[in-house]
């Protein structure tokens, strides 16, 4: 079990380790965000393939999530210079300028929209935008649980919650009058739309791990986080949603931030092939297992609704384990 007692490493050691991890992480994320391979993979695991049939089916996409899917909600009124996302290389490979996306180009949801023949989803807070073909409610820092959950457990200073799932659902509710004229018209649109719910959970666990709670304690939050996602799904079903994609969390034990924070662990704490922190990846695995169980329950409860689990954990794990396999795609000039 990893120790959550943080000992600040020597600065030079920390920088060297962080640079090494950062370079490996950058190679993987560049591939994830820039290459259509992941998009095809994500669509297959989500049950949306073949694309041509799906493209004729969906009238709109409504997306909820965190920084993995934020198309600019955090910075809709301007990008503060202190944000890293305000500077290149963010946005350089597609838009040519920073857009508020935590990516050098498009996001997974952008590729999905384009492959389904729909326009890129505007951030829901955008001014003078049309939302008749969908909207992106995701925002950097988004959590599954409301801020009150963390405050009640002494984590007020470690949670940065700019819009929980249920806050985003309130934004969705507030938007309805601008995209449909009656409850019947709304339900008709939503029945022909794709709803993407997440991923959610990564920032919830970041708040707990940032407070250096024991990992055993963090595990007790998993049912709350998953139940919150389940309630969000049911709210959308009540609005008329019949096609939903629910991604799981990524293997957080592979994140450079945690590899840097929990630097002084015993060798057996790391995966022998991945180099990732095993206890934290187990936390992600447990979350995803409970989320899939929750989805199975909701499928039985709502037999007329298709709820698809998107397995991001496996995709990212493969990139970590076999990063060199993708060098020729990330760096086309490399032999």
From TrEMBL:
Keywords: Glycoprotein, Hydrolase, Membrane, Signal, Transmembrane, Transmembrane helix
A Pfam family per the record: Lipase_GDSL
GO molecular function, one term: hydrolase activity, acting on ester bonds
Membrane-traversing stretches: 37-55
InterPro entries associated with the record: GDSL, SGNH_hydro_sf, SGNH_plant_lipase-like
Keyword Cytoplasm among record annotations: no
Entry-linked PANTHER family: SGNH HYDROLASE-TYPE ESTERASE DOMAIN-CONTAINING PROTEIN, ZINC FINGER FYVE DOMAIN CONTAINING PROTEIN
Family: Belongs to the 'GDSL' lipolytic enzyme family.
Entry protein name: GDSL esterase/lipase
Biological source species: Aegilops tauschii subsp. strangulata (Goatgrass)
Taxonomic placement: Eukaryota, Viridiplantae, Streptophyta, Embryophyta, Tracheophyta
